Amino acid sequence: MAEKNIPMREALRAALREEMLRDERVFVMGEEVGAWDGTHKVTRGFLDEFGERRVRDTPISEMAIVGAAVGAAMAGLRPVAEIMTINFAFLAFDALINHAAKVRYMFDGQFKVPMVVRAATGWGNQATATHSHTPEPIFAHFPGMYLGCPSTPADAKGMLKAAIRDDNPVLFTEVIALYPKPGLVPDDPDFVLPIGKGDIKRAGKDVTIVTYGRGVEWSLDAAEILAREGISCEVVDVRWLRPLDLPLIFESFKKTNRCVVVEESLPFYSFGSEIAAQLQEHMFDYMDAPIKRVSAMDVPLPYAKEIELMALPDAHKVVAAVKEII
Amino acid sequence: MSDLTKTLTRAELIEVYHQMVLIRRFEEKCKELYNARKIGGVYLHLYNGQEATGVGAIKALKPTDHVITAYRDHGIAIAKGADVKRVMAEMFGKRTGVSGGKGGSMHIADVSVRMWGGYAIVGGHLPLAAGIALKSKYNEDGEVVLCFVGDGATNNGYFHEALNLSAVWDLPVVWLIENNLYGMGTPVSVASGQPELHKRAIAYGMKDFGRVDGMDFFAVYEVAQQAVEYARAHGPALVESITYRYEGHGVSDRIYMKRVEEMQRFQQRDPLIVMENKLREMFPDIEPELAKVEPAVAAIIEEAVRFAEESPVPTAEDLTRHVYA
Ligand SMILES: Cc1ncc(C[n+]2csc(CCOP(=O)(O)OP(=O)(O)O)c2C)c(N)n1
Ligand SMILES: [Mg+2]
């Protein structure tokens, strides 16, 4: 099948649109998804194409948006709710954690929750402390809900389609900085990437870099720089924080015996902590060096650009971490 | 005009007008500097068009009373008496800014004038307002909290919980809904089952001060005075001010570009023009005093920009300071 070079926002839009065409039960709701065309333009033109029944502008009511999505999903619809940015998902935390992730188990399988909550994530451009979260690990803490975060337009399409078709609740986070970045995306309306399947974004033999989302870009840039110095990095994009593709990580680690974990988020109780713990529990015999973590600094993000940048990870910090264990 | 508004002296009224012009020109300057990339960030929410609401309501307070608002906060901070130079320095992300350059446009606080800040999570500051009012109730100090609330913010849980709490505890707080007809691109009629937002007060058993013309300083001031004194004596009060923001919510706001007629309708009743006309009516010989306002304001803004530009940026030490007390 043919491929198109399109930005991630268009890949997401294609996935969503195709799934709405494919399944009548799929609909979108959220703040500014209709008349405004979506804050991030992922639902551009949807109101005209699908009408108000299936493209529902909501009040600024995150708790109700997610809670109603859970109920609608329990009752047989397949809502794709948009939370403008992940920062506002904290207002819907209870609906996500205590309901979306629990009702199936709690009522012994009587219900399922085929719901997707899409939320833009990531910091940058001085958005400041309350508007700069990348809190995927917190949401991935709880069993019962999946969490995916794509790093390329093709992954975005295939992963979002998988999320919509799956019968489990999925929190799907989309890195704001990646929305405009282009990549080749298959036209195939059945291009679905399986949930929980990670991807080797660059093969290598000296160090495994485990990452997701925006971390993939920094890791690939770092791998390029390191390659010039004769250091070969394998970049593992887990794509899904839950379910996590541990076999893929382990396979890579057995080869390299070294690992750096790269994430956009905070260091405490983090993605990096989890990967490091898993490796030392299961791969201790293969370990030749301490696991290194690259993350944001353990501070809320400030407004002033000079100090905001100090707090954030980038390719150079990844390069430095790799060099420490090589 | 009622007797209440006559209690303001000529000098005070000129000062009020000066403040409204100052806020307008400050916001215009911010827009210019943002477009020139001297002010950074992805967010710049301007207060143009809403000056009469902010200045009118704050004028009804005593200096010891409190103000808190959302992210559209520059004008409100200035109206409460924050130093214009330091507000501008915050816009630049400088160390001398009111929030040390760490808060930016959406987070302007100046505790020295009891401006408790702008808050960027919609509705998030409402329970804080209730808590600050609880302090006054607890200590019986007679202070009042004036909490600005966007029309869009009336639809999340924070609103409901904060208003109800203020009612059951009889807290000295005035909830001032700034109904500028939209939350981002969503009209109030689409977002609120009851679009007459002041009526929410009834549901909480709270005193409803109704709707006021938010483009008219005198109208806002008069109702705000009643509401503030009611809150001081009895408990929470709610006021809805009908106003308009002249700028888009943000740069991607295409809907706002389409609202030409509506905008013109409000701009004909621009708060500055309404105020000037009333002043001329009240004091036929006021022209020379009015004429001095723009140059005085221009000088203040120029000085503020210079101060901001010349101020130092925060350091690595600032990055880790104040995470904890
Ligand atoms: C909890 C939350 N949801 C969404 C947003 C995004 N957002 C920022 S401002 C805004 C509109 C708020 O409208 P309104 O309360 O009417 O205030 P106005 O901008 O008109 O002053 C939205 C949806 C947010 N900041 N916080
Ligand atoms: Mg509004």
Automatic annotation (TrEMBL), chain B:
Gene3D superfamilies given in the database record: 3.40.50.970
Stored SUPFAM superfamilies: Thiamin diphosphate-binding fold (THDP-binding) (SSF52518)
InterPro entries: DH_E1, PDH_E1_Alpha_Subunit, THDP-binding
Necessary cofactors: thiamine diphosphate
UniProt record, GO biological process: pyruvate decarboxylation to acetyl-CoA
Keywords: Oxidoreductase, Pyruvate, Thiamine pyrophosphate
A molecular function (GO) term: pyruvate dehydrogenase (acetyl-transferring) activity
Residue span(s) of domain Dehydrogenase E1 component: 19-316
Keyword flag Transcription: no
Top-rank lineage group of the source organism: Bacteria
PANTHER family reported in the protein's UniProt record: PYRUVATE DEHYDROGENASE E1 COMPONENT SUBUNIT ALPHA, PYRUVATE DEHYDROGENASE E1 COMPONENT, ALPHA SUBUNIT BACTERIAL AND ORGANELLAR
Protein's UniProt name: Pyruvate dehydrogenase (Acetyl-transferring) E1 component subunit alpha
Gene source species: Candidatus Thermofonsia Clade 1 bacterium
